[in-house]
Structure formats: structure tokens, C-alpha cells
Amino acid sequence: MDVLTAIRGRRSIRSFKGDxxxxxxxxxxxxxxxxxxxxxxxxxxxxxFVYNDDVKRRLVGAALGQGFILEAPxxxxxxxxxxxxxxxxxxxxxxxxxxxxxxxxxxNMMLAAYSEGLGSVWVGAFHENEVAGxxxxxxxxxxxxIVPVGYPDEDPVPPERVAHKDTVKEVF
Length: 172
Ligand SMILES: Cc1cc2nc3c(=O)[nH]c(=O)nc-3n(C[C@H](O)[C@H](O)[C@H](O)COP(=O)(O)O)c2cc1C
Hints:
The protein is of the alpha+beta class. It has a single domain (3-153), classed as NADH Oxidase (3-Layer(aba) Sandwich). The protein is 45% helix and 15% strand. The chain contains seven helices and four strands, in the order ααβααβαβαβα. It has a four-stranded antiparallel β-sheet with strand order 1-2-4-3. It starts with a helix and ends in a 5-residue tail after the last helix. Bound molecules: flavin mononucleotide. Flavin mononucleotide is lined by residues 11-12, 14, 66, 121-125, 159. Flavin mononucleotide binds at residues 11-12, 14, 66, 121-125, 159.
């Protein structure tokens, strides 16, 4: 699948079939995560791949009851690594670069998932401290995205996008 087809066709999926994800597809997802760009190539990010239903249930609680998290066979929790980035980039690294690094990885993974026939959704509404506690994270990991991944059980209508003219100013 070419990149533009993936960019246009990917949708947020909030309903999943029970089918497991094949191990080789999980490797594709990991590859997409690590090959994203990052500030200074420090790769200031870390990912928890959660397959355990009890852990998923607790993540639902931390994510304001977003129950579809439990439906997905895989839940990826993406973190910024605030220690790794701080060593070189100090404050700007911590409040900006590591967050951007993580976002690049997650978008890569969501596009790769789509190209493999999988669905996913970025869940950003959750209590960070609770998620960090559930996964027993070290202090340098800041959880920023919960991403359930699985075979889609819905085919959502694409939500509208702003017109190019309302979001791009061309400067010649
Ligand atoms: C930073 C971020 C946080 C989001 N948080 C949530 C969330 O907590 N729950 C949810 O159902 N969707 C969440 N979404 C998904 C958006 O609602 C979705 O991307 C948007 O409506 C556009 O739909 P599309 O992804 O199908 O193009 C989030 C997306 C982003 C990028």
C-alpha cells in the first residue's frame, strides 16, 4: 500500500474483532515505531505492548472508561523518555521534542497497522499517573498515548477535514 492511500484511508477504530494479531504483524508495528524520526536521533520514547486482559481493564479505568480498549488484542502504551532527551536538549527536549518523537512513532505505527489490515485509535484522554502506576513505569517514562490495535469490526465514515485554504497559507 502506498503512503498516501494509508494516510487517506486510515480511520480511528473503536470496535475490534476477537482475532489475535499474527506475530509477524506485531514485528511490523515495532519496526514502524522505531523507524520514526526523532530529535537528534535520541529516540526518546518507549513502548509497552499489553496483551493481558486484567491490565487492559485497569487501563480502561485510567482512560475514563473507554471500554473499547479492552476489546483490542493488543494495547500499545507509548511513552516519552524524559531522561534520555534531557541529557542533550534540557528543557526544550522535555516539554517538546520527546513528545514530538513519540507522536511520530505512533502515527507511523497507526499507518503501518492500517496497511496490514489492522485498526487502531489514539487514546489521549487518560490519567497519566494511573497509567504509569498500572504498568510500573520508571520515573523517566511519561505515558502519552494508549493505542488499542486489532482487526476492525467497524468501517467508519471519514470525518470531515478543514479545507486546504483554511489551514495552509502559502508564502511565495
Ligand atoms: C492526541 C489525540 C488524542 C485522542 N484521544 C482520543 C481519545 O481519548 N478517545 C478517542 O476515542 N479518540 C481519541 N482520538 C482520536 C480522534 O478522535 C480522531 O483521530 C479524530 O476524530 C479523527 O478521526 P480519524 O482518526 O478517523 O481520522 C485522539 C486523537 C489524537 C491525535
